[in-house]
Design the sequence.
């Protein structure tokens, strides 16, 4: 993950590349893929941090989704599920002044 | 509550720059209200106010025929298929209206 992960995005017009429903060419969806909660240990820590942020600040799921949707399209498409969570977390933490960009660097 | 189960509705054509729960493939499409799910905060407003305004409005489960979304070829093989999406009241209008 590069430095772009921690770059907060402005709230103006953004692409919201997450909205790809109906777009073809992404290949088949593996519906029978065995369910695995976390593929790497760091993912469980990201999950825990997101829960903690919600419980301690009253963060809504809507704001969390919005933060992820504001990712630059290329970064979004190149990121895994929990990489997107981590990026969304970093965006919200820096925007709220809870963490400085320097601390995340 | 503006709509009830069985009502025909159309998804507004709005293309907001902010967070919304309307997928692009539903804009302008017709569906039928399947059920009223309860009142919930409108996500668009929640995000625009940084979580401050959690005013609720009715949320409906709305059914869309696959052909309405993806074209006539969808009705043939194993169908008829439907897509069911939860949509807030302000995302919808009566099918005759054009916002």
Sequence:
């Amino acid at each position: 993950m590069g430095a772009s992960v921690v770059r907060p995005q402005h709230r103006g017009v953004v692409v919201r590349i997450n909205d790809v429903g109906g777009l073809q060419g992404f290949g088949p969806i593996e519906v029978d893929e065995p369910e695995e909660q976390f593929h790497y240990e760091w993912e469980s820590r990201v999950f825990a941090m997101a829960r903690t942020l919600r419980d301690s600040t009253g963060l809504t799921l809507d704001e969390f989704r919005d933060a992820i949707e504001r990712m630059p399209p290329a970064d979004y498409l190149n990121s895994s599920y929990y990489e997107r969570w981590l990026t969304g977390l970093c965006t919200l933490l820096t925007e709220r002044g809870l963490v400085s960009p320097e601390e995340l660097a | 509550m503006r709509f009830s189960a069985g009502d025909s509705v159309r998804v507004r054509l709005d293309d907001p720059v902010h967070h919304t729960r309307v997928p692009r493939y539903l804009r302008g499409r017709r569906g039928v209200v399947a059920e009223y799910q309860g009142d919930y905060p409108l996500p668009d407003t929640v995000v625009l106010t940084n979580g401050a305004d959690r005013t609720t409005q009715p949320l409906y489960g709305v059914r869309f025929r696959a052909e309405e979304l993806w074209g006539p070829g969808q009705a043939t093989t194993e169908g008829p298929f439907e897509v069911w999406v939860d949509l807030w009241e302000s995302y919808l209008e009566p099918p005759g209206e054009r916002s």
Notes: The CA atoms of residues 51 and 81 of chain A lie 16 Å apart. The interface with chain B takes residues 11-14, 16, 19, 21-22, 58-60, 62-63, 65-66, 69 of chain A (CB under 8 Å).
